[in-house]
Amino acid sequence: MKAHTEKGVLCDLCGKPGARLRHVSRSYGSGRSLLIVENVPVTSCPHCGESYLSAEAALELDRIRENSRKYAVTREVPVVQFGESDAA
Ligand SMILES: [Zn+2]
């Protein structure tokens, strides 16, 4: 077990302290098969610039994606294609 401290955790990749646990939204697929998973815990390291999931988080994501019909709620959300602003 890694120690979780105010200073952040040790990076799994470069081993330096200061990696931060963040919660982000991830999206999978596109169009009608788009699935958005919110609140995914991601460790991001300012030293090597990597963001990665813990093994447990990756397993949970696999479970969610395999059973997305069971867990997902359908929400109406605004979606924009990149490049569709008036400045383009
Ligand atoms: Zn690192």
Provide a short characterization of the protein structure:
The protein is α+β, with helices and mostly antiparallel strands and 88 residues long. It has a single domain (9-71), classed as Ubiquitin-like (UB roll), CATH 3.10.20. The protein contains 2 helices and 4 strands; from the N terminus they run ββββαα.
What do these coordinates show?
The chain has helices at residues 55-66, 68-71, and strands at residues 9-10, 17-28, 35-44, 51-52. The model has no long low-confidence stretch (mean pLDDT 89). It is 18% helix and 30% strand. It has a four-stranded antiparallel beta sheet, covered by helices on one side. It has a single domain, classed as Ubiquitin-like (UB roll), CATH 3.10.20. The chain binds zinc ion (ZN).
Major sheet attributes? 4 strands, antiparallel
Principal-axes geometry comes out as: flat
What is the helix fraction of residues, given as a range? 10-25%
Stretches where pLDDT falls below 50 for ≥5 residues?
none
| Biggest β-sheet: strands ordered side by side in the sheet | 1-2-3-4
**Number of structural units classed as domains:** 1
Query: How confident overall, as mean pLDDT?
Result: 89
> Would you tell me which CATH topology applies?
Ubiquitin-like (UB roll)
| CATH top level assignment | Alpha Beta
Looking at the overall shape, the CATH architecture is Roll
Give Rg in angstroms: 17 Å
Beta-strand percent range:
25-35%
Q: Ends: how far apart? A: 49 Å
Based on DSSP secondary structure assignment, what is the total number of beta strands? 4
The bound ligands are: zinc ion
Number of helices: 2
Order of helices and strands: EEEEHH
What structural class is derived from the secondary structure elements?
alpha+beta
